[in-house]
């Protein structure tokens, strides 16, 4: 028969511990199973709701999607036919200008936070403001731009809409750029500095190149973030049923506001175009998100 190797003092202390564990373990098992069941249940509910929305969007959107949508402009009230060509082109221009404005500001600000002022008080303040902008409702940004660039000039414009979208995109690019640059090993910076390269050359030729995939990913995510924004455009670029002016003055047709207005209209033709536009913009955001994830995986593999 095997004998115990515990000494009397250890044997005396084993019983209370076993009793304590016997009292705790059933409660822990119940809590663990309850949490697991709750997480699974709410995950199923979320997936079901999302799948229902996507299925309805596919059914209604594909049935309304025709080649004419990509070549014709939006129709007038009570008419038939028409398309979304002017709205799609207007959205591309507003989003493109917004990204062109936001990219240099966001990349340079993120570089400053990661390379020059990691622990300074100014950097902490900038990060705090950036976090506020990340979580700020887009409608507030639209009202802010309306007060500065629409009301004083007496009219809506595509420039105001692009500025609103740029303000929404900047915090995303700043955060992503800073995070990606922080992932670059300090050994690369030290090796470049040891060769006599100034700090500016270290940043442009070493750290930016090492983190370029992550930085581009942040820009793509920011583009996906602003591509479907409606609220800020309602206060800045508004909408119209025609092609945009070369000066971007007056209302500029765009896809999010067109979907919003057509979906609330009593005209069947407009409602069908709204479903088709929703499918187009969802597919666009999906493609941008997939591209961003692919780039993130490549960056992680490096």
Q: How many beta-strand runs?
A: 0
Tally of helical runs: 11
The secondary-structure element order is HHHHHHHHHHH
- How much β-strand is present in the residues? under 5%
> From the alpha-carbon coordinates, what is the Rg to the nearest angstrom?
27 Å
Going by CATH, the architecture of the largest domain would be Orthogonal Bundle
Low-pLDDT regions: 14-21
CATH class of the largest domain equals Mainly Alpha
CATH superfamily of the largest domain: MetI-like
Going by helix content, strand content and strand pairing, the class is mainly alpha
- Report mean pLDDT, rounded to a whole number: 87
* Fraction of residues in helix: over 70%
CATH topology title of the largest domain? MetI-like fold
Anisotropy-based shape: globular
Alpha-carbon distance between the two ends: 58 Å
Largest sheet: none
Explain what the structure shows.
By secondary structure, this protein is an all-alpha fold. The protein has two domains: 23-64; 68-301, MetI-like fold. 75% of the residues lie in helices and 0% in strands. Helix 4 packs across helix 5. The longest helix has 57 residues, at 8-64.
Which properties best describe this structure?
single chain, 302 residues, mainly alpha, MetI-like fold, 2 domains, 11 helices
Question: Layout of SSEs?
Answer:
Elements: H1 8-64, H2 85-116, H3 121-135, H4 138-150, H5 158-182, H6 186-194, H7 199-210, H8 212-227, H9 231-235, H10 255-263, H11 268-301
